[in-house]
Amino acid sequence: MTENTSGSSAADQPTQAIEGLDTRTKAQPGLNATATHHENAEPAPTNAGRVFARVDEERWGYDPAEVDDFLQRVDAVLATTAGDPRSAPGVGSRQVRERVFDRVQGGYDPAPVDVRLDELEDELADRERDAFIHEHGPERWEEHLELLGQTLLGRLNRPHGERFRQPSQRKQLGYSVADVDVLCDRITEHFRSDEALDPTLVRKAVFRQAQGQRCYEEQQVDAFLDRVVELILALR
């Protein structure tokens, strides 16, 4: 998603939200429809046998062993849970979104692997939404989306330069405040309008590095953008 590959920390609780955010999904299945969807679903495509291109031997790519192992775990989820990810804890849309692979020379080309991970995240997010609605009902789902939207949009409403923490050490590098604020403004514009937001805008965001008062703490920004992608997928 960004140049940072460190873990994510929880974002602080914001104080205000944009009015009028419509958290209704485009097609909200009912309880019976959700159950029927799972019962009649075609077998999920697997990643077994998928061949990814490798970079040249002198270049660095994703560790093939790590990628293959992780995709096999996702295959197991798609093949055995019948659309209910609760029976396979530890592998879900968030784990796919946050997965980071070691780099080795001559490894897998990151671009096609990232494309496949995005596809899997989308599929798992859809299944998780259906499973939640099937268990708790559409009203609880709407409440969940409303709370998540208020949390995210509250932070977006903060003034430029104040949306995220700055590194505790003056010389520590972080994400450029200007770059992050530009992306946040674009996200805000989409949330204010009826236009659907493409998760690629957030997933592929890259920020310049900066120091001191000109940068935001990377982990907090990454954690926030992860939640933005979660909301985008939930609203589809």
From TrEMBL:
Region (Disordered): 1-52
Compositionally skewed regions (Polar residues) per UniProt: 1-16
Species of origin: Kocuria atrinae
Domain of life: Bacteria
Record's protein name: Antigen 84
Residues spanning the signal sequence: none
